[in-house]
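Dataset card, provenance and construction

Sequences and ligand SMILES were collected as paired inputs. For each pair, a complete structure of the chain with the small molecule in place was predicted and serialized as structure tokens. The example below shows a pair involving zinc ion. Curators did not alter the output after generation; any descriptive sentences attached to a record were derived from the structure itself.
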Amino acid sequence: VTSRRLPSIAFAALLACWLPAISLSGQQQSPARGFNVLLVTLDTVRADRLGPWGYEPARTPTLDALAASGIVWLDAVAPTPITLPSHASLMTGLAPPKHGVRDNGSFRLAEEKRTLAETLAGAGYETGSFVGSFVLDRRFGLGQGFATYDDDLGGGVAASGAFAERSAEAVTEGALEWLAGREGADAPFFLWVHYFDAHSPYGPPAAFRTGDPYDGEIAYVDAQLARLVSHLEASGQRDRTLIVVTADHGESLGEHGEPSHSIFIYESTLHIPLILSSPGLYSEPRVVEDRVAGLVDVAPTLLSLLGVDGLPDADGVDLLAAPADPDRAVYIESLAPQFGHGWAPLTGLRRHRDKFIQAPEPEYYDLGERPLEMRNRADEAEAARDLSARLATLTAGDLVAARREVSAEERAKLESLGYVVGASISVPSGADPKERMPYYNQFFEAFALAEEGRLSEAAEILEASLRHERGSAKAWELAATIFVRLSRFEDAAAAIVKAVDLSPNADRLVKLAQMRAMQGDLPEAQRLLDAAEALDPEDGSVWMIRGNLAAAGGDFARAIECFEAAARVDPSRVGEMARSRIEIARSRLQR
Ligand SMILES: [Zn+2]
């Protein structure tokens, strides 16, 4: 399988030894002026599962070839193991505290933040993007600067929830069509392609099902990426195109007890690939192994290569100009433990050789040690105290500001609608996430079982978890969903009330409204829907439920109005379902 492998990292590293230790500086100014840019983000792909990082079973010939005609940063890190905030850092060059996007779903990149796409559009670039997941839907703000932002997942999102995705093949088709449509254009392009496939559950297409299924997903994505590269070659654009391949985060695969990603900030989920390929500029492979690179560095590096001014406030640096600095520390965080489960947030600083993590029990690791991050040296290392102090000045006041349960304004809105927030006896535990992994794994297993339709087993495991983990809004919300499907409506209502009390959001208020409607309390259901709309006017499920309630009451004219509103405010999630309901309501109206 590996016989056609282009120079692997071992070979590339050999070259790097006798090439002058990567002379990145002293090149001509902006050597890629006027070049196209293809930026590819591989969701949930950890570096050490790829050919260029020396992984033997890898089936990544496209990445291997890109690495052979460009620069590989062996030590690249994501700022956070969460899709939306990590992409926001990639697009702005800012660390999460500065761009303000701290989690999926409930945050949006503010209009006033300047992005790479806006900067390149301003410099005359044609901009297009094709994303593979609802997590990056335009409502979350990453469409800024893209003339085309294709986040159409083809309906059905409402049924499959926030992790609705479209395949790498569909994403590639869209991108190829876009490229073909602008053939012969004078302006250069900036194209961002996002492949979500490696996200769990791992289910590669038949041709990629041999071996480990996670590797299979990556092999499938690699094969789709090959189609884009081939198109650039066939159309004569390859030599004038910078191709950057990276990831928003990795995947734990059970390491440190974490099944997937989003909670911990260990290397499993933060060590990402970073390849910059351009045969027109780099005919020899180069491997950078003496410094840390951050996702925040990508935009400043690209702009510098292209000779475009912009993003002066970036936290990232131009990787091709900055000298290796062993003391450089990249900020890392995950606030998902806090937002989702009421545990302590995790923040940290990552240098090339070591790493500090702030937690109730702080952690410090020497990254030269194997196995990685198994021996916590926080008590014995002077460096741990230094990094801890640096981190404290960086995050001073910020974590309080980032607590995003409900803003004062939202609270006032909710209260004006008669909904009392925070009357709960449920309290976030503030626990150290690493101590909660047994319960988190039960939550995760229950989620997977429920996806497979094994509801009774899911409920049993989740209820065992909830006896210990009473402050996790996500766990209560999942319980409510499972209880409904088991027709345990009283339990479902009690569970969703807990989730709303711990952390109200539009989704949860809609679910509670459905509960109240089923229990016959229609006025309360309507009040909750109003509150949900106030929190998120783009949540189409609010209008879907209003339509359903109107139809159930025989008012089909009103139902049609509501479904039309649903399709208008939230086409990507509920558009298709709304249109089919309108058909049904119309036929009932005509009877
Ligand atoms: Zn992701």
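Derived descriptions for this record:
Residues 126 and 185 are 9 Å apart (CA to CA).
The radius of gyration is 25 Å.
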